[in-house]
């Protein structure tokens, strides 16, 4: 075969392939509204992660590659500290927020180098399941505190519990999230921390959902320890941090071995993931105020159009301060899992509450703790926005709900 014939044959093959591809039905664009479960990897985080993987090196080694790896981790530590409004030496990297909670929730605590053993763990009824496990506190040392109808910690109940335990000679640790992962309701952390510290207690704050969405300042919050997770802000999964308000605040390590993380967390650091975490934190810090405003506009549009266009709906926690990116909506007469599937088929990704428990059938414990009837709580879905969200995503979700809800209600009434 001559060169010309070969060239013509290749051209024919290429044309056939292009025609075949062109004839395939295009895949509809998906609208991703589940950033509270995990936020897509930011380009900045991906680039930093890949570069760190290529560079290699163990941060505990003293040669050039090790020193470079250490420098990358320390730069990430500074970025994460800035995200939390905390001292750099207070940041301990972990495998995620669950490990951070497990590290913090322990009776043996040191504050500024002084032992302050805690006898009981108080936790709001709307905490994440990872916190409600109590971790290294005995099960009989865990006390659940009520919340009001908007899902905010009942400060009077907290005050009463603190007084009761202090009168019995017991010191309390309080676990209270900065903002709820399902409803987005912002908790009165500073007010709660003031009460706890007046009773000589300790405050642990799950700030996983708040980070990157509202400003964080550990001193203003009054938290002694604070948990973060990279993948909620567009960083890689599998990395988080326990942040202490002071360099000499600590709890008993979960892992013993080497002296990594200033003897707080043994094991070779996941350097590339940590670097990706730092890059995501830097990206968030650079646009925090503007991004919060943008997301609030999108969220308000979403809620307004859904409430106007779909009867029998309401927004949970609408009377409280909430994260600008999160909305939880109940649909009377429907099951949340059915709505999640219907929207998935319409190329819209949402969830039925916490991703850590949304695979379970049943009403959200958060909503039940807020006093919602079980049938209403069972029909609640969460839509959460993030850095990659657009007005097209919001409009796609609204249109999908306008179509799916009447159809599902009609089927339910026929089956009744």
What does this protein look like?
- The protein is α/β, with parallel strands linked by helices and 416 residues long.
- It contains 13 helices and 15 strands.
- Helix 5 links the parallel strand 5 (120-124) and strand 6.
- Helix 2 (43-55) runs antiparallel to helix 9 (271-309), helix 6 (155-167) runs parallel beside helix 7 and helix 9 (271-309) packs across helix 13 (391-415).
- The protein is globular and about 65 Å long.
- The chain starts with a helix and ends with a helix.
Can you describe this structure in just a few lines?
The chain is built from 13 helices and 15 strands. The chain is an alpha/beta fold. Strand 8, helix 8 (218-221) and strand 9 form a beta-alpha-beta unit.
């Amino acid at each position: 075969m001559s060169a010309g014939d070969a060239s013509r044959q290749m051209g024919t093959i290429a044309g056939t392939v292009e025609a075949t591809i062109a004839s395939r039905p295009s895949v509809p664009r998906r609208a991703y509204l589940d950033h509270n479960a995990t936020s897509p990897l930011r380009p900045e985080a991906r680039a930093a992660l890949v570069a760190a993987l290529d560079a290699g090196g163990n941060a505990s080694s003293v040669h050039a590659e090790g020193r470079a790896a250490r420098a990358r981790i320390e730069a990430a530590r500074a970025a994460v500290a800035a995200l939390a409004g905390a001292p750099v030496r207070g940041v301990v990297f972990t495998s995620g927020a669950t490990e951070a909670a497990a590290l913090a929730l322990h009776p043996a605590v040191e504050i500024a180098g002084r032992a302050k053993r805690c006898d009981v763990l108080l936790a709001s009824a709307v905490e994440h399941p990872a916190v409600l496990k109590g971790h290294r506190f005995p099960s009989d040392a865990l006390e659940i505190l009520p919340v009001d109808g908007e899902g905010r910690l009942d400060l009077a109940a907290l005050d009463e519990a603190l007084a009761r335990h202090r009168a019995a000679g017991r010191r309390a640790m309080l676990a209270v999230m900065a903002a709820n992962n399902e409803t987005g309701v912002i908790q009165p952390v500073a007010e709660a921390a003031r009460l706890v510290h007046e009773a000589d207690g300790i405050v642990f704050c799950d700030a996983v959902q708040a980070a990157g969405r509202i400003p964080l300042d550990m001193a203003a919050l009054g938290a002694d320890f604070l948990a973060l997770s990279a993948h909620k802000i567009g960083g890689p999964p599998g990395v988080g941090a326990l942040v202490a308000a002071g360099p000499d605040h600590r709890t008993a390590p979960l892992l013993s071995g080497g002296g990594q993380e200033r003897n707080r967390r043994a094991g070779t650091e996941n350097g590339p993931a940590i670097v990706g975490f730092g890059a995501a934190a830097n990206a968030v810090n650079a646009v925090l105020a503007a991004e919060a405003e943008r997301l609030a506009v999108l969220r308000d549009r979403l809620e307004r159009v859904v409430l106007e266009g779909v009867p029998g709906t309401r927004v949970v926690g609408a009377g409280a301060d909430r994260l600008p990116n999160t909305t939880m909506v109940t649909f009377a007469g429907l099951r949340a899992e059915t709505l999640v599937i219907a929207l998935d088929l319409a190329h819209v990704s949402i969830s039925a509450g916490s991703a850590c428990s949304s695979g379970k059938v049943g009403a959200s414990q958060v909503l039940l703790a807020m006093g919602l009837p079980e049938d209403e709580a069972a029909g609640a879905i969460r839509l959460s926005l993030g850095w990659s969200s657009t007005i097209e995503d919001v409009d796609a979700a609204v249109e999908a709900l306008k179509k799916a809800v009447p159809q599902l209600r009609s089927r339910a009434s026929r089956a009744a």
